[in-house]
């Protein structure tokens, strides 16, 4: 059908919707990476001596490491010396409320469709917006502080709660962990910090929107979430980046600590620029995310919807140290055009009666490559550990790839580990069936894909689930023909 | 309503339809019968716009518009409905959700407001009675794990929801026991009006006891070789298709 082809053409040629950048004056570090740059950042951020030393130690460690090559992704080597490691929007003085914020910055968020004002009015989500490297505004802080909850930018936490930061920073992801985590530890610029005191149930979803703006700026976020005994928090992270030809590096670290009977839900909707349809440009997303269920009966749940980035390298993991602790990982990873994703999780069972659940849904379209890489490790002491893994792959077209790399490592005979995997293809029959009921092809794809990913999308908070559904549809538009 | 003129269609270069001519007016029920491989399902698929089939010659007008120029979803929105012989499963998508998307896209095309959840559910409740379908079935993933009878019932239910002008039932009787056949036929009959038309594609006469056609056409080797009334179907039931084949072959020799 000629009309069909026209629609197809229209959507395959659709450009990334968030692809624009605003020329605001930036306060930038000089190009390059060395000890002086790290000192420069530390001074700029008015950091205490211990943190500078920690950074320098991380930098030394990083220098002795080599870039990992085991992931099923290919990309030209990144010249880390050609990047700028700090870029902050210039502000006259620190804002105390939204009204004092630079209207141009606020406009950026409006265009992203996540206006802070709107967010503030709606739902009661507290947003800590990160533009490039500095946290721009933090809302709802007052409401939260009454409960003893700390939710602020990482830099602020360093100033106001140094004892907490010092205690937990690097406790889940040590600086020696991996190449990118070490790099992040050396040069991280800002991020979010969240502390939930004992017995407190955080009454609202905490949310951070990241956005990379300045050209050639590596963004190195550092997020630390501490949930003390018997506390609960649900944390949302959303990402968008403007369109650029150069590949940009994003190497974040997220650390989660959960005390006894504490529960942390961490949800991500990632929409970094994936590169254009010829595979030019796009974000390199090399992220280390890890949580530790330190106390008995604690629970950490990761939910991710990955639609963006040119190259993704990401394994949100759980260390199940406390007895009866639970780790969960729900993931939808979509790749289109020339995107490459190597993502999955690690579940490390250390405590007795620990449980983990992995549900991974990969969707590959265009000429993309989508890999699931997961590790389930049961240590000697972990009596009665349970794991269930389900890894499904959905293929659209015949030029993409789906790969599954499950690693299972058991050191206790009482462990029960299950792994299920399926691979399916979106059928022309399914599309035609929808068409015949009056549903346009792109809506049909959205419907089918959302059905496929439902188990994961159901884990997201309501308003995020809606956004995620739209994103899935947008990412895959025109990929079936 | 539907005017098919000298329609030729082929799949992967093999001609299947070789010059179909058919006129259908509003209010009529036409049965298309014929032996296996005669092109019955192909005709249904070509009318619905399935892409594997290439129309090589001829024209189809639907309510005065060129049907062959339209994409499958446009045909559906204009009022062509195909009840599939093998309804497709869509995991994770509930029938309700699926139908709401469909109904609202069709309504939009017809210049009507989209139905909100409340209005949609009340429309659903009303139409559910027609085919005695259980609401539980509609909250399950579309056709997934449905029995043959449930799938066919769901097809007719969708037809009721979408209120098409022209319904094409492709072997709707296959895989149905007699009770399910009665329920499905009863639904189709209730949806019949002076404004819409129905094409019943079937191999067996049995269905036509319940959905009584105004005309019966026999398809053989991609052409309509004989047309008549319901009596023709009965004759076919009694004598099989062989005499038609013989008749056609002898004509060809002459």
What would your notes on this structure say?
The complex is a heterodimer of chains A (481) and B (254). With 481 residues, chain A is α/β, with parallel strands linked by helices. Chain A has helices at residues 2-12, 35-44, 49-63, 103-112, 116-121, 141-146, 154-160, 162-168, 179-187, 428-436, 441-452, 454-457, 462-476, and strands at residues 26-28, 87-89, 126-131, 134-138, 150-153, 192-196, 206-211, 222-227, 232-240, 248-250, 253-258, 263-271, 283-293, 299-306, 311-314, 317-320, 326-335, 340-349, 355-364, 369-378, 386-395, 401-410, 416-425. The longest helix of chain A has 15 residues, at 49-63. Chain A starts with a helix and ends in a 5-residue tail after the last helix. Chain B is α/β, with parallel strands linked by helices and 254 residues long. In chain B, the strands form 3 sheets. In chain B, strands 6-9-10-3-11-12 form a 6-stranded mixed beta sheet, sandwiched between helices. Chain B has a 4-stranded antiparallel beta sheet with strand order 2-1-4-5. A two-stranded antiparallel sheet of chain B has the order 7-8. Chain B is built from 9 helices and 12 strands. Chain B is 39% helix and 28% strand. The model of chain B has no long low-confidence stretch (mean pLDDT 92). Chain B has helices spanning 40-48, 72-78, 95-109, 117-128, 135-139, 148-162, 178-191, 230-239, 242-253, and strands at 2-11, 14-24, 29-33, 53-62, 65-66, 80-83, 90-94, 141-142, 166-170, 197-201, 215-220, 223-228. Chain A binds chain B through residues 1, 3-4, 7, 427-430, 432-441, 443, 447-448, 450-455, and chain B through 48-51, 70-77, 81-82, 84, 87-88, 90-93, 97-99, 101-103, 105-106, 109, 141, 158, 162.
């Amino acid at each position: 059908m000629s009309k069909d082809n026209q629609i197809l053409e229209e959507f395959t040629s659709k450009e990334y919707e968030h692809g624009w950048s605003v020329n605001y004056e930036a306060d930038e570090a000089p190009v390059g990476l060395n000890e002086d740059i790290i000192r420069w950042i530390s001074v700029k951020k008015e950091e205490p001596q211990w943190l500078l030393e920690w950074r320098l130690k991380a930098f030394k460690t990083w220098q002795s490491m080599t870039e990992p090559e085991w992931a099923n992704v290919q990309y030209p080597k990144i010249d880390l010396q050609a990047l700028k490691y700090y870029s902050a929007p210039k502000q006259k003085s620190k804002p105390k409320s939204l009204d004092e914020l630079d209207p141009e910055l606020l406009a950026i968020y409006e265009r992203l469709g996540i206006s802070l004002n709107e967010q503030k009015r709606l739902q009661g989500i507290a947003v800590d917006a990160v533009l490039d490297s500095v946290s721009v505004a933090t809302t709802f802080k007052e409401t939260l502080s009454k409960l003893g909850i700390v939710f602020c930018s990482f830099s602020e936490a360093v100033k106001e709660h140094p004892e907490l930061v010092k205690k937990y920073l690097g406790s889940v992801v040590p600086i020696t962990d991996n190449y990118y985590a070490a790099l992040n530890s050396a040069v991280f610029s800002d991020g979010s910090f969240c502390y939930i005191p004992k017995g407190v149930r955080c009454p609202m979803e905490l949310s951070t929107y990241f956005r990379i703006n300045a050209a050639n700026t590596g963004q190195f976020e550092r997020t630390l979430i501490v949930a003390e005994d018997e506390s609960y928090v649900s944390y949302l992270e959303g990402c968008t980046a403007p369109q650029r030809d150069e590949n940009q590096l994003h190497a974040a670290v997220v650390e989660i600590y959960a005390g006894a009977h504490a529960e942390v839900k961490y949800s991500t909707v990632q929409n970094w620029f994936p590169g254009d349809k010829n595979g030019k440009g796009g974000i390199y997303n090399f992220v280390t995310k890890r949580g530790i269920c330190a106390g008995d009966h604690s629970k950490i749940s990761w939910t991710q919807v990955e639609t963006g980035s040119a190259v993704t390298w990401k394994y949100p993991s759980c260390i199940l140290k406390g007895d009866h602790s639970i780790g969960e990982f729900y993931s939808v990873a979509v790749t289109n055009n020339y995107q490459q994703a190597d993502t999955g999780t690690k579940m490390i069972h250390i405590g007795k009666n620990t449980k983990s659940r992995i549900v991974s849904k990969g969707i590959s379209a265009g000429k993309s490559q989508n890999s699931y890489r997961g590790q389930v490790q049961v240590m000697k002491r972990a009596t009665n550990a349970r794991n269930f893994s389900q890894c499904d792959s959905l293929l659209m077209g015949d030029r993409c790839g789906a790969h599954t790399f499950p690693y299972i490592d058991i050191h206790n005979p009482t462990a029960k580990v299950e792994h299920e995997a399926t691979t399916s293809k979106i059928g022309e029959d399914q599309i035609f069936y929808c068409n015949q009921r009056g549903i346009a092809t792109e809506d049909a794809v959205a419907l089918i894909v959302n059905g496929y990913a439902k188990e994961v999308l159901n884990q997201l908070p309501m308003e995020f689930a809606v956004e995620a559904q739209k994103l899935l549809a947008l990412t895959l538009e025109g990929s079936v023909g | 309503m539907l005017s098919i003129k000298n329609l030729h269609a082929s799949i992967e270069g093999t001609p299947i339809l070789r010059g179909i001519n058919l006129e259908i007016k509003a209010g009529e029920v036409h049965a298309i019968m014929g032996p296996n491989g005669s092109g019955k399902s192909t005709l249904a698929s070509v009318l619905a716009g399935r892409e594997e089939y290439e129309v090589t010659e001829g024209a189809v007008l639907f309510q005065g518009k060129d049907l062959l120029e339209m994409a499958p979803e446009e045909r559906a929105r204009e009022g062509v409905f195909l009840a599939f012989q093998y309804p497709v499963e869509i995991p994770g998508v509930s029938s309700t959700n699926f139908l709401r998307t469909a109904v609202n896209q069709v309504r939009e095309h017809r210049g009507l407001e989209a139905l909100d959840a409340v209005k949609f559910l009340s429309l659903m409740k009303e139409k559910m009675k027609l085919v005695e379908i259980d609401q539980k079935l509609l909250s399950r993933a579309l056709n997934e794990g449905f029995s043959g009878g449930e799938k066919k019932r769901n097809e007719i239910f969708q037809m009721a929801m979408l209120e098409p002008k022209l319904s094409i039932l492709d072997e709707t009787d296959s895989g149905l026991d007699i009770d399910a056949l009665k329920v499905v036929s009863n639904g189709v009959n209730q949806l019949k009006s002076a404004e819409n038309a129905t094409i019943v594609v079937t191999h067996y006469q049995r269905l036509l006891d319940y959905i009584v056609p105004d005309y019966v056409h026999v398809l053989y080797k991609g052409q309509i070789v004989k047309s008549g009334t319901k009596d023709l179907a009965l004759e076919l039931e009694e004598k099989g298709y062989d005499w038609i084949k013989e008749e056609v072959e002898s004509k060809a020799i002459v």
